[in-house]
């Protein structure tokens, strides 16, 4: 059985896609699948996708005709086989222990959702990289009951986005996806968070947001 499904919508991301998918291929966790939704790309994204799909059996691709990120994620969800779900934006990069940390924290805490910290990735003109940390390094907490909703409403650490989190797949039962790509993450999490009884959060910056 597949433990984790990672859903990655892609539209014209040739400049960043290889690094993104390479960071997934180097995960320390082995039992996962990658659901790539090629959402009508007209650049060289398709070539990059096909190279990963042909060389790594964990990678799978599904083609759409530019339906937008929200609907592309829904298509990825429909094809997913994992017990847990994670989402990755196709221009971002993750640390090698991103998935392992999320799933270990989720299982050990008996949580419905786990989250990790992130940083902002900037590439300077000289090619050097700068990472701006957006969380408190090293802290770990388990949030339960009514405190989960309080933490979400306060925007404290959790963040209003899908990509630094892992979810039990059943949280997505009867969930509606936005018909627009405007604030689509918040639209989803607003529905999911009311189902979450236990949330784990580790502040380590394992997601690099570009």
- Mean of pLDDT: 90
Strand content: 25-35%
Q: Distance between termini?
A: 32 Å
| Residues in helices, as a percent range | 25-40%
Number of helices: 6
Number of strands: 10
User: Helices and strands, in N-to-C order?
Assistant: EHEHEHEEHEEEHEHE
Cα gyration radius (Å): 16 Å
Shape: globular
Low-confidence stretches: none
SS-based class:
alpha/beta
Largest sheet: 10 strands, mixed
Task: Describe what is shown at a glance.
This protein has helices at residues 17-25, 45-55, 69-79, 98-108, 146-153, 184-192, and strands at residues 4-10, 32-39, 59-64, 84-87, 93-94, 113-123, 129-133, 140-144, 165-168, 198-209.
Characterization of this structure:
Helix 1 (17-25) packs parallel to helix 2. This protein has helices at 17-25, 45-55, 69-79, 98-108, 146-153, 184-192, and strands at 4-10, 32-39, 59-64, 84-87, 93-94, 113-123, 129-133, 140-144, 165-168, 198-209. With 210 residues, it is of the alpha/beta class. The protein starts with a strand and ends with a strand. The model has no long low-confidence stretch (mean pLDDT 90). Helices cover 28% and strands 30% of the residues. The longest helix has 11 residues, at 45-55. Strands 1, 2, 3, 4, 5, 6, 7, 8, 9 and 10 form a 10-stranded mixed β-sheet that branches.
């Amino acid at each position: 059985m597949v433990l984790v499904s990672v859903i990655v919508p892609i539209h014209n991301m040739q400049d960043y896609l290889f690094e993104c998918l390479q960071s997934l291929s180097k995960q320390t966790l082995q039992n996962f699948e990658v659901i790539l939704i090629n959402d009508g790309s007209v650049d060289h994204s398709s070539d990059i996708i096909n190279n990963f799909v042909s060389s790594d059996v964990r990678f799978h691709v599904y083609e759409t005709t530019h339906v937008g990120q929200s609907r592309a994620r829904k298509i990825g969800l429909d094809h997913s086989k994992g017990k847990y779900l994670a989402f990755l934006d196709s221009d971002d990069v993750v640390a090698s222990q991103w998935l392992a940390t999320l799933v270990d924290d989720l299982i050990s805490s008996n949580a419905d959702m786990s989250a990790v910290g992130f940083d902002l990735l900037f590439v300077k003109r000289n090619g050097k990289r700068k990472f701006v940390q957006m969380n408190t390094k090293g802290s770990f907490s388990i949030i339960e009951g009514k405190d989960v909703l309080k933490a979400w409403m306060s925007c404290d650490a959790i963040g209003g986005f899908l990509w630094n989190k892992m979810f039990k797949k059943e949280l997505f039962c009867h969930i509606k996806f936005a018909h627009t790509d405007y604030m689509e993450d918040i639209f989803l999490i607003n529905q999911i968070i009311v189902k979450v009884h236990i949330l784990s959060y580790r502040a380590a910056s394992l997601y690099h947001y570009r």
